[in-house]
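Subject: sequence -> structure tokens, single chain

Hey, anyone have a minute? Need the predicted structure for the following. Not urgent.
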Amino acid sequence: MPLPLLAALFCDLALGGLTLAVLIAQLRGRYPRPGIPLAAGLVLLTALFLFTASVSAEELSPSAAVLSWTRLYGQETTRAALLTTDRFRQREHVHVWAERTHHILQQIGYHHLGGQVVKEVVREGTATVFLKARIRTLIGVTEQTEIYTLRQVGGQWLIDSLEVRDEVIPEEENFVACAACVVVPLCSQSQPPA
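Reply:
Had a minute. Here:
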């Protein structure tokens, strides 16, 4: 765990203990104006909790952002959309993009089965993550290499583009079950079929 996150958690726990001690003292009648220390303790505790949450989001590495994306995409697509740039979503609002994409993914029975980060390259606010991945659709399980390009925006790594390579698609006999499948552009760099 990163050092700033550990420090924030320690402070959060310490203030929580202090707030509890003040509350117990109030119950025993040791503070003449019990509301002031309790209110101050709760305000500080809330501020530190929010600081801890923001530190953990900003500390997310490019690989961790990609792995979070793979868990969310197709399942909780709105949350996945929050891990992408406007460019990736072709300038669509998060909720509009998520609703449209989620509907399409449900039609093709999409589910990301996870993967293994093979390589991560970080340079001056951009990162590239190579993921050996498996996905399941109506046609079966496909193995592929996913290449994510991420940009750091406001301290958070966001997916800016996705390229799929080295797809190993199930045997042709399995395609009959998926006559209604559509090709979906995943990002602005994908071109729809002519």
